[in-house]
Amino acid sequence: MSTHLPQSKHFTLHQLTDGIYAAISIEGGGATSNAGIVDLGDRTLIFDTFLTPQAAEDLRDAATHLTGRPVSLVVNSHWHGDHIQGNCIFAPDVALIATGRTRELMATRADEDIDWTKVNAPAQLQSLMRQLEEEQDAARREDLALKVSESREVVETLWKLALRLPNETFNSRLTFHGTKRTAELLATDGGHTESDAFLLLPEDRLAFAGDLLFVQSHLWMGHGNPDTWIGTAAMVTTLDFQTVVPGHGPLGTKDDFETEITYIQALLKLAGEAISAGKTADQTAETPIPAEFADWRWREGFGYNMHFLHGYLSKRQQS
Known about the structure:
Blueprint lengths: L10 E7 L2 E6 L9 E5 L4 E4 L5 H15 L5 E3 L5 H4 L10 E5 H35 L3 H19 L11 E3 L2 E5 L4 E7 L7 E6 L4 E9 L11 H11 L6 E6 L3 E2 H23 L4 H5 L14 H19 L1
Parallel strand pairs: 4-5, 5-6, 6-7, 11-12
Antiparallel strand pairs: 1-2, 2-3, 3-4, 8-9, 9-10, 10-11, 12-13
């Protein structure tokens, strides 16, 4: 495998096999999530497009360099901005593909998020910079410095940021038959969001999971269904692959889906106990992080998840 891979301040490229590359985000850059490049033989496919146009430009240029042809297919795994906001840098003739429900969510919620970002991102950057200047704790300063760097990346290209919707949609399965390999795009009925897609490369025993999988990182549950997510993760483990590129975190394996299931089940149990003890959602969010998850990235995500689960379980009990 080649060791001379294109460089970017937003991500590192990992060659998984001939013609398949994982783009793993660098903290503090403009990517914030992972993506992928797949050489189908006659076409080049990109899986997810990062948070910012400049990170997506580096990904597009790397794909063109590595495959020797322009990108012609782009897949969005779900509607969240850190996976779709780079769409706007691709040429109009590039096929942009997502599930029908993801397109609907992009047209409404992602559009609203972009409008909010254009108005509020500069002030948000200034606030983070003030927090960094005043913070004394070394670990907290390190976290804030990364957030400042990421926020600056967003602000620098606000003028370029625009919503580009998928021009092709599918509902359950879409197969790309290339001259070099076959890739299967599979949709789920929810989990992380209302509609999540992942890419399976059966001949290579590889998968790009999007945010159906977080590795060594707290999940974001706030737009999903934890019970459905558990079922989806269990289903994915029945498929034939070895290496998986998660939406966040380092490269993983099937075992990481099992770990994710354990995480969701543990938080559901903790949130249920908090409700039984009469705790409010805010009090539930203050639950200490279990030791087995204490070293995971994005620690504040645990509190967000516990707050969400308090409401989720309360509604489930009432129904």
